[in-house]
Description:
CATH superfamily of the largest domain: Vaccinia Virus protein VP39
Bound molecules: S-adenosylmethionine
Helix content: 40-55%
Largest sheet: 9 strands, mixed
Number of helices: 21
Family: Belongs to the class I-like SAM-binding methyltransferase superfamily. RsmB/NOP family.
Structural class: alpha/beta
CATH architecture of the largest domain: 3-Layer(aba) Sandwich
Domain SAM-dependent MTase RsmB/NOP-type: 145-427
CATH topology of the largest domain: Rossmann fold
GO biological process, one term: RNA methylation
Distance between the termini: 66 Å
Organism: Manganibacter manganicus
InterPro entries: MeTrfase_RsmB-F_NOP2_cat, MeTrfase_RsmB-F_NOP2_dom, RCMT, RsmB-like_ferredoxin, SAM-dependent_MTases_sf
Number of strands: 13
Amino acid sequence: MRLGGRLAAAIEVLDDIRQRHRPAAEALKDWGISHRFAGGGDRAAIGNIVYDGLRRRRSAGWLLGDDTPRAVAFGALLLEWGRTPQSLNAALDGDRFAPPPLSETELQAIDAASAGDAPPEVQADAPDWCVPLLMESFGAEWVEESAGLAARPPLDIRVNTLKSERTKVLTELASTGAVPCALAPQGIRIAPIAGGGRHPNVQAEPAFQKGWFEVQDEGSQIAAELTAATPGQQVLDYCAGAGGKTLALSAMMQNHGQIYAHDAEKQRLAPIFDRLRRSENRNVQVISKPAELSALTGHMDLVVVDAPCTGSGTWRRRPDAKWRLARRQLDARKAEQAGILDTVREFVKPGGLLAYITCSVFEEENDGQIAVFRARHSNFVPVDHGMLWNAHFPGRQDAARMLENGIALSPARSGTDGFYFCALRRHA
Length: 428
Ligand SMILES: C[S@@+](CC[C@H](N)C(=O)[O-])C[C@H]1O[C@@H](n2cnc3c(N)ncnc32)[C@H](O)[C@@H]1O
């Protein structure tokens, strides 16, 4: 397929996402099934146009003076692929599978929009209702930070120290341009792809099959690192899901001590079993029934709550979620978080730690949630997060925001997905 055919396909997929309010990954998969002739390169390019367009939807709309799937797809190529209107029209010329080239009206709109600065909410590429939330979290830096959440993400890997080491994995992945992460001690990064390219399928590597590494955002690795789990501890990972944090904690504990991995949804835990086998984590018990947790009451050195949240910190990877999110979902997640915190506090032994993590950038789910928890339970007191950060990442105070109760990471500041971390010590 030439660019014109790929652009037409991206418009079709964006239209499907809009009409049927469905996730981008599903719409792309369906398109692939009904267009089996399309090769891997075509699928990657179409996916990139769709995801770029969704990340920069407002900017694309501003540029073309419209917010149709066509405007979003053309906008993606103009904003992210280094295309000019002229080079784009030249590439579409004579291609019978291409959509109609940019019209005179569209070219004039592009000229007009390019002549001035877009309003802040357009530069931020954020829904209007989220703007006050982003301002609350990022203050004067809210536009730059929100734009960071609309950029292409890197591919991050965590080396499994139970089976390998970073230099060995770097050698294995040398052809991919992989480099050590800036912060996470076992992190490896493959930079964001350009244009129509795609990240290598690292999970097809023999080193992955041997359990040498996992795919995990650097922010998630840092959150696990900040729990400071040590060999021999008793740890409850209460929202373990597919086990990303569980595996990281188990490696930090060198397979000594015990991790109880729980999740309210049994099917979310399903992938954990294969992952534990491949990575040779031997100190993890998976517990799906809440009743079976009662024996742990008051005995845990560390309880980790990787809480259900809006996921606003992961908008780079799931930009469609940014436009589907609604205020009522934020309120629902906040209620769940408060309920979970109230439940899990009983598992922490006196002197033990409760680590609360979200992949959201919204204050209400983060420091705000912890402030109201502390008002209800004064025996839980935040550790000194400045000291904690410096102990793990000396000289890198610039890479995180220290808040009243915890630590916030973000793409623009930290080079990671947006994450929040707070460790509370139980006194009595
Ligand atoms: C952010 S995800 C966890 C991701 C996982 N820890 C990882 O690192 O891969 C949040 C998880 O919380 C679970 N969850 C939601 N409500 C819960 C509850 N009341 N009790 C326990 N788990 C819950 C969800 O099923 C979901 O798997």
